[in-house]
Amino acid sequence: MKISFSIVAILFTLVTFGQEIKNDTIKSSDQNLKFNYKSLIIPSILIGYGIVGIESDGIKYYNSEIKDELNESIDEKVSIDDFSQYLPFLSVYALNGLGIQGKHDFKDRTIILATAYILMGGTVYSLKTTTKVERPDGSSNNSFPSGHTATAFMGAEFLYQEYKDISVWYGISGYIVAAGTGFFRMYNDRHWLTDVVAGAGIGIISTKVAYWLHPMLKRSIFKNKKKSNKVAMPFYNGNQYGVGVAITF
Description:
Blueprint: H1 2-22, H2 41-55, H3 57-73, H4 81-84, H5 87-97, H6 106-131, H7 147-163, H8 168-187, H9 193-220, E1 229-236, E2 241-248
Antiparallel strand pairs: 1-2
Helix pairs in contact: 1-2, 1-9, 2-3, 2-9, 5-7, 5-8, 6-7, 6-9, 7-8, 7-9, 8-9
């Protein structure tokens, strides 16, 4: 199956990157961010469930049952998910602005976030164009996976990684917001359960890999040879993912 092969290729690439990082000794603040195969298990299961659900009649039936249950309860759509998807990762910058310092400084956490966003956005876009799953409301054929949910869970894992040493509740709150985002994607008849579940897995795994890649990227690309101010922020305009970069010397 073409889709399954794509997922296997993605996971193999992530594991290869992780092994390279594991074997690399880097003296930095990221020294404790070691590659851990076990942390890939849950997001991989989530992605796998979504992939299997594309062809499984049983899972498709379950998707339809949930859609029908939600449609019976919908009085009007709530567009909060268009904004809540960004709340977890924006919370990291807000907390730092309030003086609650996370694991990394502005530059490093922005590099990590941009890397996670590129990984997540590229994976979501590739799967949307490959799978061509019809949305529950019939508006288009790019339902799988949920980009909103992937963005939210990417941010939730980002929030967790930055603040887990201070309080695990920061991460828990981020995951609650992310789960709510996924729920409202289904409530608004924009996604199936499988879309949301797979999106969650993609978001989590993208952030984990971004943290593992960061020491290597920092050493090979973002060297501090010259002092300059760089800001890189990901964006999503409803149709496209990207990263805006501003550099002043």
